[in-house]
Design goal:
single chain; about 130 residues; mainly alpha; Cytochrome Bc1 Complex, Chain D, domain 2; two-stranded antiparallel sheet; elongated; disordered C terminus
């Protein structure tokens, strides 16, 4: 009987390990999907920024004398930037597209804030100054 109980404990232990592995894999898959989605939103935001905002604004983190100013200097939250973006003279677009622009701009600002050399002109998401 002791031998059988030990075997049952070993099987139960293996089942727990298998279950934990499965949960870990699912959790990792969800994080990977969320990361992929976030990157896709930033890429879309960069593209939209170039088309809708880049004629007037730059994102270098220093004064470029652009007509609309450099948005990298503002250091706004997403909520503040969204409010700001809603009053800009840009083509009509969906709320999702506008939020993607805001995520992109705020992410570039956050990158600038972390960077020791202020005014750097590159980002992990690509060139800062939007060109047409």
């Amino acid at each position: 009987m002791g031998r059988c109980r030990g075997g049952q404990l070993a099987i139960a232990g293996l089942a727990v390990v298998a279950l934990l592995s499965l949960i870990s894999a699912c959790s990792s898959s969800v994080r990977t999907h969320a990361t992929t989605l976030a990157v896709a939103q930033l890429v879309e935001g960069r593209r939209l920024f170039a088309g809708a905002c880049g004629a007037c604004h730059t994102l270098t983190g220093h004064d470029t004398h652009a007509n609309g100013g450099d948005l990298g200097l503002l250091q706004m939250t997403q909520a503040q930037m969204l409010s700001f973006a809603r009053i800009m003279p840009i083509p009509k677009m969906s709320s999702d597209k506008l939020r993607n622009i805001v995520r992109y701009v705020v992410s570039v600002e956050a990158d600038d804030a972390k960077r020791p050399s202020a005014g750097a002109t590159t980002s992990p998401y690509g060139a800062r100054k939007a060109t047409r």
